[in-house]
């Protein structure tokens, strides 16, 4: 029997059915049904024979799902109904007992929590995989000077190892965010029923234990309404993808003829259909472009959830495509970043040439005067004057005469000034913790290694 006298309109079905995308939840749906059936029998809500029949049917479904032979039917609205229908075909009357004490509302929330947990674990692993690669590449380029930039203007020279390690720290923070997402999937929604709880003496802790949840959601209304963990994953993924877009953007710039700082390996580049000389850093460009796509999924999900009255609303079905697309996109982004950074070649000469620009030492000259007692703000003015004199006469700083230096400030002794400008001196003087002297970068590298090991030791 059905409550409805008329069939659903075609367009309504196309709007409403979710099977085309929520089939990805099938493995989790089967697992939770296995646990649910075990619990129903343990609580004497169904018989042991019914449980065994359900388990046998669910094992067949699991196999059909994994080898792609699951027989979908015309009327399957979503993955939950498809699996229940199939279980009933296989198990007969026992199949009709599977949905005892359960609603699709707590069921879908549970599937989504399980899917999100797996995605967060995978993203956490992939972030650390990239940290490991970055640390290795940074170590190999620990003391290669390059210009550091602000406003994309050469600012102060740094070591390439230092610059690469910046991304390692970003990804270590990303890892922390994905771990927090795993925590957010801890409380089990199942057992909340449609919204008010179940009319049976269920054992939710038993189900939680079997499915790897750490606790049970305490409020059935909240349990079926909650998609915070989806928002949390999308937020963590957006931040991570944003980091990767900055990495991609730098590789695009750096591999241009104009910079010439690096070359991506052939495996991560493509040619042009018309210009035979070209090697395009497509992977880096796509790293750049995926970030707004992923953060767009987050913005969409906030839009879906905002203003929704409790509890379950069909709007929430939209969570799936947003989440799945973000998960798939981020997986590709992190795999591409790993492959590209692991095989990239840096151009030592070009990096060094670009960092030899003496004007990059302007701050260091000012600090030299600070050490001789002049307040920093005045030093800034003295050096600005020196830069202007040099630029307007087409000279570099070290080409200024001792007289010009003395005119600029009596504290500016020529010997100290010229020594300061000699090769590399102003890189090695950045001795502060986290700074660019090679000793500081080496210490930082060790700190990053330790942070990586701690992150890897996180119990999953
Ligand atoms: N396909 C639905 C979804 O993804 C499952 C839950 C349906 N619940 C309901 N009361 N219609 O959200």
Write the CATH homologous superfamily of the largest domain: Fumarase/aspartase (Central domain)
CATH third-level topology of the largest domain:
Fumarase C, Chain A, domain 2
**Radius of gyration of CA atoms, rounded to a whole number:** 30 Å
Structural class: mainly alpha
The percentage helix is 55-70%
Estimated share of beta-strand residues: under 5%
> H/E order of the elements?
HHHHHHEEHEHEHHEHHEHHHHHHH
Q: What is the number of strand segments?
A: 6
Shape: elongated
Tell me the strand order in the biggest sheet: 1-2
Q: Give the name of the CATH architecture of the largest domain.
A: Up-down Bundle
Number of helices: 19
Count of structural domains: 3
- By CATH reckoning, the class of the largest domain would read Mainly Alpha
Distance between the termini: 47 Å
**Average of pLDDT:** 95
Q: Which ions, cofactors or small ligands are bound in this entry? A: arginine
Q: State the low-pLDDT regions, or none.
A: none
Describe the biggest sheet?
2 strands, antiparallel
Considering the chains and any ligands shown, give keywords for the structure.
single chain; 460 residues; mainly alpha; Fumarase C, Chain B, domain 1; Fumarase C, Chain A, domain 2; Ribonucleotide Reductase Protein R1, domain 1; 3 domains; two-stranded antiparallel sheet; two-stranded parallel ribbon; 19 helices; 6 strands; binds arginine
How do the strands and helices of this protein lay out in sequence?
Layout: H1 10-16, H2 19-22, H3 26-42, H4 48-66, H5 79-91, H6 104-140, E1 145-150, E2 153-159, H7 160-184, E3 187-188, H8 204-211, E4 215-216, H9 220-225, H10 228-254, E5 262-263, H11 282-305, H12 319-343, E6 345-346, H13 348-355, H14 362-371, H15 376-392, H16 402-408, H17 414-421, H18 425-428, H19 438-456
Parallel strand pairs: 3-4
Antiparallel strand pairs: 1-2, 5-6
Helix pairs in contact: 3-4, 3-6, 3-8, 4-5, 6-7, 6-10, 6-12, 6-19, 7-10, 7-19, 10-11, 10-12, 11-12, 14-15
Bound molecules: arginine (ARG).
Arginine binds at residues 18, 22, 78, 104-105, 108, 312, 316-317.
């Amino acid at each position: 029997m059905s409550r409805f006298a008329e069939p659903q309109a075609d367009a309504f079905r196309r709007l409403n059915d979710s099977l085309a995308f929520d089939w990805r939840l099938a493995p989790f749906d089967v697992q939770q049904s296995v646990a649910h059936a075990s619990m129903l029998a343990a609580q004497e809500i169904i018989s042991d024979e019914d449980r065994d029949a359900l388990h046998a049917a669910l094992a067949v479904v699991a196999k059909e799902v994994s080898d792609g032979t699951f027989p979908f039917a015309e009327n399957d609205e979503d993955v939950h109904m498809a699996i229940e229908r199939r279980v009933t075909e296989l198990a007969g009357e026992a199949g009709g007992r599977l949905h005892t004490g359960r609603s699709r509302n707590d069921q879908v929330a549970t599937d989504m929590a399980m899917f999100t947990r797996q995605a967060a674990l995978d993203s956490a692993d992939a972030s650390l995989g990239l940290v490991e690669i970055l640390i290795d590449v940074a170590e190999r380029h620990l003391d290669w000077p390059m210009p550091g930039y602000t406003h994309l203007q050469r600012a102060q020279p740094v070591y390439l190892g230092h610059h690469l390690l910046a991304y390692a720290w970003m990804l270590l923070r990303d890892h922390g965010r994905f771990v927090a997402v795993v925590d957010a999937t801890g409380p089990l929604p199942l057992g909340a029923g449609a919204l008010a709880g179940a009319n049976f003496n269920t054992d939710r802790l038993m189900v939680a234990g079997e499915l790897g949840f750490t606790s049970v959601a305490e409020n059935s209304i909240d349990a079926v309404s909650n998609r915070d963990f989806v928002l949390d994953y999308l937020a963590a993924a957006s931040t991570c993808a944003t980091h990767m877009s900055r990495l991609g953007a730098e590789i695009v710039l750096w591999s241009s003829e104009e910079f010439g700082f690096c070359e991506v390996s052939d495996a991560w580049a493509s040619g042009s259909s018309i210009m035979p000389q070209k090697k395009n850093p497509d992977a880096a460009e796509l790293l750049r472009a995926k970030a707004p796509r992923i953060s767009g999924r987050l913005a969409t999900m906030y839009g879906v959830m905002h203003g929704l009255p409790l509890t379950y609303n069909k709007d929430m079905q939209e969570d799936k495509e947003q989440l799945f697309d973000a998960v798939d996109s981020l997986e590709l982004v992190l795999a591409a970043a790993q492959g590209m950074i692991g095989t990239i070649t840096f151009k030592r000469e070009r990096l060094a040439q670009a960092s030899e620009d003496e004007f990059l030492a302007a701050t260091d000259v000012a600090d030299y005067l600070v050490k001789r007692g002049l307040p920093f703000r005045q030093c800034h003015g003295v050096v600005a004057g020196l830069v202007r004199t040099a630029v307007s006469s087409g000279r570099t700083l070290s080409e200024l005469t001792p007289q010009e230096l003395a005119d600029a400030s009596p504290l500016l002794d020529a010997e100290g000034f010229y020594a300061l400008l000699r090769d590399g001196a102003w890189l090695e003087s950045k001795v502060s913790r986290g700074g660019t002297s090679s000793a500081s970068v080496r210490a930082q590298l060790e700190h990053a290694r330790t942070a990586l090991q701690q992150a890897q030791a996180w119990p999953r």
